[in-house]
Write a structure and sequence with these properties.
Rossmann fold, Dihydrodipicolinate Reductase, domain 2, 2 domains, nine-stranded mixed β-sheet, six-stranded parallel β-sheet, 9 helices
């Protein structure tokens, strides 16, 4: 492999997309990754993205990009329904793959891709970037250092407003079959952050509900029927014995944001943010052997850039590149692998009620 990882990014854009907000700035800041190629669905937009982001090659067909011998790894940064096909093609071509979360439209797609990656011996990562939120990483460090002692109870909530309407370019998310909704995205990211700092579920029960059965399309001023879930409630026990409760919801107005409370025998940690931990800044407070929470500063070593989305992508770039050069995917410390995709949202394999 070349000294730098030669990356081809599917879903590049000059402005206005997730890749332009996070992936592409992080790649420009990386000394380990070369953005070799970009791919969009049109030749003119691909060429524009290549010029804007400094890629040597541009493609309007991901198959041609994947076939290029100048590409070591592929990043799939497109809408959820389009994750599966390019990820599978890249793995079959022997390319390492980073895919945005969720890995597949369904659990079956995710499991198939994870199995293929394992069989091929390739390095993979999914975009569960809450793991590299600086405050979340510090929570993990504090727990491992014994700040709270034995973890006894965990409560996580994320309540975001805006469930009653969507702009026209996002109304496609109303269809649960397309795999981009509160259960797959917000719950996946938020529960994974909790798993990352504590451990996996031993058992759980869940309720998945669609409370807003119509959305207003603000572009056309029409009401659209909705099947996507907007509220997810989990209760259960972690493998370390701690009890846990989770409520992730999209509600009409004045959402309370993100909150993760970890209660141990020796202390308490509370992480809070205005939005999901993969999207917003997170503040940290704690109490050790006392009943008054105090602010806990996050060490500067967890931050590599000011722009928060680029910070998380830069952390992921570092860890993924280390794994590529070491030849050992298991040595990565923070980013989730494809095999984690079936663990993050285990609701489909546990008792659940659908409302």
């Amino acid at each position: 492999m070349a000294e730098k990882v030669r990356l081809g990014l599917i879903g590049a854009s000059v402005t206005g997309t997730w890749s332009a907000r996070s992936h592409l700035p992080a790649l420009q800041a990386s000394s380990d990754v070369e953005l070799t190629a970009v791919c969009t669905t049109r030749a003119d937009s691909a060429e524009a993205a290549g010029r804007a982001w400094g890629a040597r090659l541009s493609f309007d067909d991901y198959r041609k990009m994947i076939a290029s011998p100048e590409i070591d790894a592929v990043a799939v940064v497109v809408r959820v329904p389009s994750h599966y096909a390019p990820s599978k093609a890249a793995l079959e071509a022997g390319k390492h793959v980073y895919c945005e979360w969720p890995l597949g439209r369904t659990t079956a797609e995710a499991v198939e891709l994870a199995t293929l990656a394992k069989a091929k011996g390739l390095v993979t990562a999914v975009g569960l970037q809450a793991r590299v939120n600086p405050a979340v990483m510090h929570v993990k460090e504090l727990i491992e250092a014994g700040f709270v002692g034995e973890v006894m109870a965990v409560h996580v909530s994320l309540l975001r407003e805006g469930v009653l309407s969507r702009p026209s370019h996002r109304t496609w998310q109303r269809d649960a079959e397309l795999g981009a909704h509160t259960l797959t995205i917000a719950t996946g990211h938020t529960v994974d952050a909790m798993r990352f700092v504590t451990c996996d579920f031993r058992r759980l029960s869940a309720m998945v509900a669609t409370q807003a059965r119509q959305w207003l399309d603000t572009g056309t001023n029409t009401l659209l029927d909705v099947t996507s879930p907007d509220n997810v409630l989990l209760s259960g026990q972690l493998s370390n014995g701690a009890v846990v409760s989770v409520h992730i919801g999209a509600i009409p107005f004045a959402g309370s944001g993100y909150r993760m409370e970890i209660y141990g025998r020796d202390g308490t940690l509370v992480a809070t943010g205005k939005d999901s931990p993969q999207l917003s800044e997170v503040s940290l407070h704690g109490a050790k052997g006392a009943n008054t929470l105090a602010a806990i500063p996050v060490p500067q070593r967890f931050t590599v850039r000011r722009a928060r989305h680029a910070v998380r992508r830069s952390h992921q770039c570092r860890s993924n590149v280390y794994s590529l050069h070491s030849g050992d995917p298991g040595r990565r410390k923070s980013p989730a692998e494809f095999r984690d995709s079936g663990r993050v949202a285990p609701v489909g394999r546990c008792h659940q009620a659908r409302v």
